[in-house]
Amino acid sequence: MRRAVASLFALVLLIPALAAARKEPAPPEGVALILDSNRILLEVVFVTPEGRERKALAWFNMGMASTILSHDLYRELDLGRGGVLHVRIGERQLQARADQIVDGDGGVGVPTFDHLFAPSHVEAMLPAKMFTAYVLRIDYARRRFALDAPGAKRPEGVPVPMLLNSDTGIAAVEAEIDGESLALTIDAGSGYSWMRGDIARALLARHPDWRRAHGAIGAANANMIDFAFEKDGDLLRIPSVRIGGVEFKKLGFLGTAPVLGSFAEDIFGDLFWDNWRKAAPAPVIGWLGGNALRDFELTIDYPNRMSYWRREKAPDPRELDQPPITLVREGERYLIGGIVQSPTRLPGPSGVEVGDELLAIDGVAARGAGKDDVLSALHGAPGERKRLTLDRRGARSDADVAVESFE
Hints:
By secondary structure, the protein is an alpha+beta fold. Helix content is 17%, strand content 38%.
């Protein structure tokens, strides 16, 4: 009898544990994010004037101050009459005044969605300004994006104070680079870290061994615009970049080339950087892009002007290894925009010329493919050979080109 009672008592004690084991796992926090060339895309819901829900794919960009909508979406939401834009991300309802919204992607100083993201159909760009009432969490490893009320969740990671322009929502941190304190914007909207060309050239003059290439490759070539920024930029790896208690080792930056050439820069200054940084909270010299951020869970506490950095994985030192070419995208076509010069190699790859269209990599078609697919096909181990199928003024040819290391 005593044994039966003891067994029954043990079963009673076990019931809560069994119930807990059967309990469904907690739903993931926030919403799913999509990484496209290290940029963040979100599935969002806009609300039309009739109250209808309109789903769209939006680019979250921490480095721009204005909301941008495609022409068609702007008209569908009837924002030309003024009023307020309503958008929902998960359970969060966000708003923006119509006079703060740019009608149409493309144009002077306005990114072109098709160029950056096709074949993905992106219809909007949402700036950080829309999120500054919240604590933003970006979990790159789990591909999650969450907006918390201030104080609702204890942040994880190393705390780093932020500078914030409350009018634009653009945030920056003080970085220690080569013994100097320099401000860098936090920009999850950019796939790669960029730096003013004059700052990069000064660093390379002191440390020529930091240079990895002249011309962008891999993730540094994500924009693929036919301007000098990438084609004539300098790719460097800085041995140590510190922001508070966080250290980035051998962090890659693209030191941009002046868009109008060095002669115009000497007269007018760097027109791109001098204008862009007006929206920043300090005289920044560049930004930390996706290649720096993707190894972390990043928490941005806008109300308290604090960032938190929890490292989730080690950086990939081979992220840029590919044949030494810079690509330019025109519509669905990928063109050879430049032959990358590296300190260890002077002549360019045989059989490849600037202006050639890249038709395929090892038989994988390039025309019409997404940038990530093309860059993934080019990526490989140093010394590996890639067969590039090219079109040169109507004549097709193959070039056998080696993958090079830009570690």
